[in-house]
Design goal:
2 copies of one chain form a homodimer. Chain A is mainly α. The first copy, chain A, has a single domain, classed as Tetracycline Repressor, domain 2. Helix content of chain A is 75%, strand content 0%. The structure holds a DNA duplex.
DNA sequence: GTCTATATACGGATAGAC
DNA sequence: GTCTATCCGTATATAGAC
């Protein structure tokens, strides 16, 4: 699978993200006309990600946000009850999407090699399709309320555990060598995250997500097969 | 070399960091008695790193800072002319220390293998000794003034280039295989950075900086020697 | 050299008009 | 459903006392 194909298979459009969000948070949004809500949510998320990722969520005021996306501050509060509410809901939403899609793509694969290969690709492709969301989530975790932060950290560990389990499975079947599975998963995660954390750098160097996937797959397999 | 030895060789104490800082910024600090300045700088940096790394530099007010470190807000402004000034000077200071020490340790090494080995260790050991500084620098880069941000990004690329050059040298001497040197340096950097970005995780799992150094050295050498 | 008190500005959130 | 006007709290930065 290449990125182009992944994109066709699951349409992670900005609109689809908002539609899903609306369904899950219908009760906490004061506006009731679906079409309006989705249109405005799209504007809110794009603006919030743009401003936050440029200068940090804390530095973004709700006035900044309303100016950028076109609604008044008052109207904004019909969608999110507070600035913190916006942060928490965005984090939660990203994490739901990610866990759902990873599971969808990994479960069908049978052997460890194919699972790991798929995990690398799906994680990179997802973070490519939703780059601002991933960057936002990473950079703003420490600014969240304690309970929300714990949720986010747990979600991050859950993803790491998917990798750990694949490695253990591969070691049992003797398809991978016996390196520490936790450490292995950890550095694999670090490489996966570098893609969305340093996206500008890779863009400047004309490295596509497919190039990157191929390279780190080579690195990972070289060491997992190295005695 | 192990971490314990590195620590003995260069005493990166909090005090020595402040002393060096004082020498380089003597003119912009209104207080003149060296002893007082160094004592207060130490308090300021510790408090700023503590608060910033917990909830972000933007979210830290100068009042927070003065409460935490014991000076009045007014007195604080005798040391730093603004909150932004504090951010920029801290970034610059960290980057001076890092470049200086990396050069000191890498230059004497002759062959590429030893240079790379040393680079991995020195970077990890430095980021261990100055973890709050490294974390701060990484997380707050995007919040800096444009010129300061460009400096920081350039400094980061300079470090990456040290790695790239070592890899190229090793490839010429046929001690490493022909993988893309830029991409190789890039993912090595990602693994080095993971150490200070996820320090809590590794602490929880009882992974020491020496364990980590050994593990990623194994990963890196496995792939650099893999045809 | 350091502290207290304060000027000035801006942010989050809401009430009420339309 | 959305906008304007506004309250109240808090931020940076400084002036002047000690």
């Amino acid at each position: 699978m290449k990125y182009a194909e992944f994109q066709k298979q699951i349409k992670i459009t900005r609109k689809s993200i908002c539609k899903e969000f609306y369904k899950q948070n219908q009760d906490s949004i004061r506006i009731k006309k679906e079409e309006t809500v989705i249109r405005n949510l799209e504007k809110i998320f794009n603006a919030a990600l743009k401003i936050s990722n440029a200068k940090g969520f804390q530095a973004m005021s709700m006035r900044d946000l309303s100016n950028e996306m076109g609604l008044s501050t008052g109207a904004l509060y019909a969608y999110f009850s507070s600035k913190e509410d916006l942060l928490n809901k965005m984090q939660e939403h990203r994490h739901n999407i990610v866990m759902h899609i990873i599971d969808k793509y990994i479960s069908p694969e049978k052997n460890a090699y194919q699972k790991l290969d798929m995990m690398i690709k799906v994680h990179l492709y997802l973070s490519e399709a939703m780059q601002p969301w991933f960057y936002f989530s990473y950079m703003e975790t420490k600014n969240m309320s304690k309970s929300q932060r714990e949720k986010t950290v747990a979600a991050s560990f859950a993803i790491e555990k998917v990798i750990t389990d694949i490695i253990k499975q591969g070691q049992e079947k003797r398809c991978f060598n016996k390196h520490d599975p936790d450490m292995s998963a950890s550095i694999i995660k670090a490489m996966l995250q570098d893609w969305y954390l340093k996206r500008k750098k890779y863009a400047t160097r004309n490295i596509s997500v497919d190039d990157y996937a191929e390279f780190i797959k080579m690195v990972i397999m070289a060491f997992l097969n190295n005695p």
